[in-house]
Design brief:
The structure holds two protein chains of two kinds. Chain A is mainly beta. In chain A, 0% of the residues lie in helices and 52% in strands. In chain A, strands 2, 4, 5, 6, 9, 10 and 11 form a seven-stranded mixed sheet that branches. Chain A is globular. Chain B is an all-beta fold. The radius of gyration of chain B is 13 Å and the shape is globular. The chains are: A mainly beta, B mainly beta.
């Protein structure tokens, strides 16, 4: 069974930093693009970033470019999101999600971890 | 940026009836559209990809149609577990700037 488990969320002050982690199991982690998607309170889903299987390519939504960094450690089946210069509008539940094969949708998601940025 | 507009925002339907949800794209996304079901406190669940292909394990009562800018998710004979929020997502562009619709809340009438 495919499982994705996020951790690392919490309460942080505006301007602060936080590092999220996601551990995958039940599949060959190194074979998949991986993503972070977030949902602000009362809002819809927003794709944040993704990373190629090897970590050689990364992409970001414009609102987080220069502040967030996505990375992975395939030996640990882990995905990360380093979040710096956090803003109130970054408050959200952050999900990691898997992209199958050469497609670009998300076939498995974690349960999410909550990030709250206080002002 | 491709904007997806879902309608209606809220849909009230009785169990056993049919629900039809719409998603309109601001420009053509061909068939690069997925639908997800999301319940509070749970992981989103992929229902449909390629506009009309059911994901693994998704019941046949879920069907997707459309291409270009107009898409529909139909749930025939609603079950109690189907009441949730549904999102469409486009994945047409590269480099990726994936976008979601704002969601349709399907509630029990």
């Amino acid at each position: 069974e495919v499982q994705l488990v996020e951790s690392g969320g919490g309460l942080v002050q505006r301007g602060g930093s936080l590092r999220l982690s996601c551990v995958g199991s039940g599949f060959t982690f190194s074979n998949y693009w991986m993503n972070w998607v977030r949902q602000a309170p009362g809002k819809g889903l927003e794709w944040v970033a993704n990373i190629r299987q090897t970590g050689s390519e990364t992409f970001y939504v414009d609102s987080v470019k220069g502040r967030f960094t996505i990375s992975r450690d395939n030996a640990k089946n882990s995905l990360y999101l380093q979040m710096n210069s956090l803003r109130a509008e970054d408050t959200a539940v952050y999900y990691c999600a898997r992209t199958p094969g050469t497609t670009r949708f998300f076939d498995n998601w974690g349960q999410g971890t909550l990030v709250a940025v206080s002002s | 940026e491709i904007v997806l507009t879902q309608s209606p925002a809220t849909l009230s339907v009785s169990p056993g009836e049919r629900a039809t949800l719409s998603c309109r794209a601001s420009q053509s996304v061909n068939s690069d559209l997925a639908w997800y079901q999301h319940k509070p406190g749970q992981a989103p669940r992929l229902l449909i990809y390629g506009a009309s292909t059911r994901a693994t394990g998704i019941p046949a009562r879920f069907s997707g149609s459309g291409s270009g800018t107009e898409f529909t998710l139909t749930i025939s004979s609603l079950q109690s577990e189907d009441f949730a929020v549904y999102y469409c997502q486009q994945y047409n562009k590269w480099p990726p700037q994936y976008t979601f619709g704002q969601g349709t809340k399907l509630e029990i009438k």
